[in-house]
Design brief:
The protein is mainly alpha-helical and about 475 residues long. About 55% of the residues lie in helices and about 5% in strands. It has 17 helices and 8 strands. A hairpin with a 2-residue loop joins strand 1 and strand 2.
């Protein structure tokens, strides 16, 4: 059965558009031109663009440039989309013509058609509300899309902050819980001096805290909006009061702390603020991935690995090996973080590839930055709630490996010198003898000093084992 259509016209001619579609001829051309990935604009990006259209209608009502009746219809149509309706109408592939004109026109057409319906007119007639003349009044794709990127990122920021704050605090609680567990430190994946498991988890919390602060600092640059720049940032066809009024309305409807940018030409030319924000998401992802990898390593085994911690079992780990449990959540987190690194590489190259007054790679910048925020936020929540919160220490195994660490000879160096300590370390490995037993057997230290010098807990704090300065004889 043939799909019912309506005839629409644009500067390239006429075209049949599905009768049920709220989008129009320009959107359809874009959908046909770019059947690339099947990826659609992320909801946050659609929402941010619609906010701009609503703010523009409110602004033009104030200035008297747009008939109040038409403005009200556009606002009502925008409110429907903001409330979650008509989201299936935003159909242009992420990989589309430069700058995002196709996405901008998709939004313009949906709002114009719905506004006309609210006024009793037909879809596709674009009267009395026209997508370009009224919904896009005083705007250009060139200032709408960069503004939408900024608004969308800022709108999603608090969700990310909340997720990572919860992760940081959970890591800190685990640090407190594991403070009595002394284990072998490892550098280069080789034995190193003792460290408390709690110290490791507190350090993880510190990395997340620093990363989160860098993200929020980078986000502050996104608060400067270039809306009102129009085609090249100069504000042609824009009323002088428009930028400030737009920011006023955007602040009111989004509750975001945004500002009118002082140099709209610069804000249009450069995607540096978005790239800087993406870069800090990447740095945060690097730390998160490192933590996930560490947990996988410490949980390796349980019989042939380290087995110093136990991760919660969330699902069977093998289709062939009965009883096998894998570190499924950290493995997922690693993959998310790798994707974020790739997203940032795309953003960085795209940000560099703007020419003169505009960066035409904004659609892919928008998608990748927002995708990074989305998957970092959701994976962080899962990581915290389904893994980190229920990690258990295995003190017995931690103590087992620690006593066998050849690095414990380091504590002897202040007493007997580096060379003698190094020789003991080599003998410990070669003869498979504990450092403590070797010291006793060889009489390296007086019996009453051995436990003091080889106090494993004290080795996890600043100080010289066995005394303030040690007692190495002069050479």
């Amino acid at each position: 059965m043939a799909t019912a259509t309506r005839t629409e016209k644009d500067p390239l001619g006429t075209k049949e558009v599905p009768a049920a579609a709220l989008y129009g001829v320009q959107t359809l051309r874009a959908a046909e031109n770019f059947p690339i990935s099947g990826l659609r604009p992320l909801p946050a990006f659609v929402l941010a663009t619609v906010w701009i259209k609503k703010a523009a209608a409110l602004t033009h009502t104030e200035t008297g440039r747009l008939d109040a009746r038409l403005a009200d219809a556009i606002i009502r149509a925008a409110d429907e989309v903001i409330a979650g309706e008509h989201r299936e109408q935003f159909v242009v592939d992420v990989f589309q013509a430069g700058a995002g004109t196709s996405h901008n026109m998709n939004v313009n057409e949906v709002l114009a058609n719905r506004a006309n319906e609210l006024l009793g007119a037909k879809r596709g007639a674009y009267a009395p509300v026209h997508p370009n003349d009224h919904v896009n009044m005083a705007q250009s794709t060139n200032d709408v899309i960069p503004t939408a990127i900024r608004l969308a990122c800022l709108a999603q920021l608090q969700l990310l902050v909340d997720a990572f704050t919860a992760m940081r605090d959970t890591l800190r609680r685990k640090g407190d819980q594991f403070d009595t567990v002394v284990k072998s430190g490892r550098t280069h994946l080789q034995d190193a001096m003792p460290i408390r498991l709690g110290q490791e988890f507190h350090a993880y919390a510190g990395s997340i805290d620093r990363g989160l602060r860098r993200v929020t600092e980078a986000a502050d640059y996104l608060r400067d909006l270039g809306i009102g720049g129009s085609a090249v940032g100069t504000g042609v066809n824009v009323e002088p009061e428009y930028p400030e009024k737009m920011v006023k309305h955007l602040r009111a409807m989004t509750r975001l702390d945004v500002r009118a940018g002082k140099d709209r030409v610069q804000l249009m030319q450069s995607m540096g603020d978005a790239a800087g924000f993406s870069a800090q998401l990447r740095v945060l992802a690097l730390d998160v991935s490192k933590i996930a990898s560490d947990l996988r390593l410490m949980a390796s085994g349980p019989r042939t690995g380290l087995d110093e911690i136990r991760l919660p079992a969330v699902q069977p780990g093998s289709s062939i090996m009965p009883g096998k449990i894998n570190p499924s959540i950290p493995e997922m987190v690693n993959q998310v973080c790798f994707q974020v690194v790739g997203n940032d590489a795309c953003v960085a190259v795209s940000a560099e590839h703007g020419q003169l007054e505009l960066n035409v790679m904004m659609p892919v910048i928008a998608y990748n930055v927002l995708l990074s925020m989305q998957i970092l936020t959701t994976s962080c929540t899962v990581f915290t709630e389904r893994c980190i919160a229920d990690i258990e220490a295995n003190p017995e195994m931690a103590a087992y490996w620690l006593e066998r660490s050849a690095a414990l000879a380091t504590a002897l160096a202040p007493q007997i010198g580096y060379a003698a300590a190094a020789e003991l370390s080599k003998r410990s490995v070669k003869e498979n003898v504990l450092i403590r037993d070797l010291v006793k057997r060889e009489g390296v230290l007086p019996p009453d000093q051995i436990d003091e010098v080889l106090d494993l807990r004290k080795m996890t704090e600043i100080g010289v084992p066995g005394g303030k300065h040690g007692a190495v004889a002069a050479g």
